[in-house]
UniProtKB/TrEMBL annotation:
Its main location: membrane. GO terms for cellular component: plasma membrane. The chain crosses the membrane at residues 410-428, 440-459, 493-526, 547-567, 587-605. It is found in: Cell membrane. Keywords: Cell membrane, Membrane, Transmembrane, Transmembrane helix. One of its GO terms (molecular function) is FMN binding. Residues 84-182 form the FMN-binding domain. This is Nitrous oxide reductase maturation protein NosR.
Amino acid sequence: MPARRASNLLRPALLALLALLLAVPLAAAGTLDRAGMERYFPAPLVVGERDATLPVWPILKQEAGSYEVFAYAFESIDLAPIPGFGGTPPDLLVALAPDGTFRDVRVVSHHEPVFLEGLGSEPLFAFVEQYVGMSARRPIRVGRPNARGSGAAPQTTVDGISMATASTRVINESILAASLAVARAKLGFGAANVGLKVEARPDTGETPTVAELTARGWLRRLTVTNSQAEAAFRDAGVAGAGDGPAAAPLIDLTFAYLNVPAIGRTLLGAERFAALTRELGPGDHAVMVVSHGPENPLGEDFVLGSIPDRLTVTQGGLAVNARDMAIERRGAAPALPDGAWTILRITGAAGFDPSAPWTLTTKLVRERGQIFPEKIVREFSADYALPADLFVREAAEAGPSWTDPWRARGVELGVIALALAGLVPVLARQRGLVADRRRFPVFRLAYLAFTLLFIGWYAQAQLSIVTLVGLVRAATVTHDLAFLLYDPPSLLLWAFVIATLFVWGRGTFCGWLCPFGALQEFVAWLAKPLRIRQVTVPPRLDRALRLAKYVVLAGILVAAATGSPLADSLSEAEPFKTAITLYFVRAWPFVAYALGLLVLNLFVYKGFCRYLCPLGASLAVLGRLRLLDWIPRRAECGSPCQLCKVRCRYGAIGADGHIDYPECFQCMDCVTIIHDPGQCVPEVVARRRGRRIALQPVAAE
């Protein structure tokens, strides 16, 4: 069937699906009423009246005959509806004490696929319990699993969950963003900065000297002498001072806010300041810290691009998330003393106001004891303030909360991007590597190994029908696709797959970039040494079985569009979560199902992909809109030559030689044959007769 005709038939179906999505009512936000709150906060606690302007419930406790605020309780979905990978935001119940500490964090609801019938909800419940006792005044980041047991600061780090990195980041962002909104509105933390975007005024061309910056207070110093350190640790019974005289500096920091051109250009130079300005995102801020003293607060184990453990920026009682920008460390102003330095990025989402006073705090750490040493920490601070006329203040839009995973996974993105860029010319230039019957199988084997090991098991970028379920839910609930941004490798692959889908068809993903598909190919290669004879499904039965995947796809999409939880259960038709995301570490029925499909693959080549895969079905449907029928054919293909049809293990070549693109996995075996004068039967016959034959396009089905 020509692609244009398929497009005409498909368009009404797509419009009908869109109408179904739009007809579904939007879901509500927070779900807890007073009775619901009382279940979480039973007597002797009392649930007060819900705030009229902010969706917050005061939780009261009787103290000395009167009721005092024990906590402010709220649902994160009301204040920070950040979509998760199920397409809808997780809903967390948070109780924030008047001093900014977390009294409690509970999961009200979520649709995170990795926790639904995957890892189970218990790891998620344990994850949010870590926030209890932590402070919203400090930046909290998600570390590696068991990060706190490996020495990470327990006050500012929560242990991540293996195989759920992106989901835990979404949940952390939801908790922190909602909590900061309540802290600013109810606890007075930085309340003056809410709803404003503050940026440095445009460049006036002024370039003061370092001495002038210091005299104006635009370049500040934080110094801790040996005697001050000794006094700070005296009550702990440990020595705080370093070597040298009592008046000698132990910690000596110079710091400044760089966004103001007069400051940034003086300290960095014109060229580097321009580069910094280009690198900062909209609303981002940069703070430079130079350490001159013998005690380096950047720490011996400091990692470029991380959040320094011993440096904190605070404003209005709240810690601001400040991360090292991992830029070249040379070339600071010659007038500054030599020393280690960093430029800290504060994202626009942090609500930082550079026109208001803020504080730089450094930590000094000492150990007490020999066998199990106890860490003793003391903090030293210096304030910083710039004149308000250096800035422009205007209403602000919420900044992005998804930038961290893009920075953290830059290496993975680079490797995958290079691999995709390398695949395109191989598939496009069919007279090149593809035509080489010796080298091409080696290339394909290596690429499939990369897909399975790196894209699948390492980068966790197995594309899934779960994403389409999330898109449907986003269309009916949040109208927000931001959840896609929290998994950068998968989003990169989706962009590539969609682009190639409308050019070449579904086979680029299914034949080259699906980790479970690659695993099936490796298992299928075991059939020969195991002396397992693969079954050729009769054509009529084959055509009937192919329809099954479309039935599964339709069931999943309808369930998702109508808000039914059945969508999550039906999505388990894919074994991807079990075999790739969870490394087969899962409840035995799921493992048995995934292994059963691999065993089936020994007898029926790619049986799951051809007959059951809902993601493959969706790509096959959309692939009918492709622009090209690009796989070469000869007029003799199908009549009289049937070699490619016989060799095609996917059954994607018809008896008349045409390519059935919705069922083609682009293994390129037929292309190798048609360009090989030793294999292509019409070519062999023509050479014997002293003739040459040309490739001719044959219409696709």
